[in-house]
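hey so u asked for the seq, here:
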Amino acid sequence: MDVYEVLFQKCLEYEVIVDGKEVPLWKLKKEDIANGNVDFDLQWDSLQDLAISLYELKKEQQKSKELIKYPLEEVIIGIAFLKSKKSGYLITDDMNNINTCLNYLSELITARINCISRYYYLIKKPMNTNLFDEIILKFPQKKDIKVKNIEDLKELVFKLKNFGKNLKI
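ran it, structure tokens below
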């Protein structure tokens, strides 16, 4: 199982609210998603808000240790299920906003890998690492690691986006 499959599994365990109850994403029925009965409890209202948040996070915390605590699964859920706002923004097309978010997420993951390798690799393993971080800790230590993961991230997002449509009930 590669790192993106692990991240996909973690996204499926993400807790959403359906009819006032918290349930993991994998328990959703396609009717719940189609009827809009799901509250994803995200900190963003639209794909544009998410893109702005990712850009600002990367810009402000690129070298901060706090970057390793940022919930990647929540970002991926947001990319998969948030919609674009149709007014007040320059880009209102869902696909363009998804691609923008994926680009920023890729840069964020690259910064996160560099942060982990800079602060923790070969020094110590943090006590609060999650499975994704433990996999990243196995990366070779280099001064700056460049990651080409846009296609993997896009595949992961569209697996989640189509998840509700492909459920067998």
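The mean pLDDT is 78. DSSP finds seven helices and three strands in the chain.
lmk if thats what u needed
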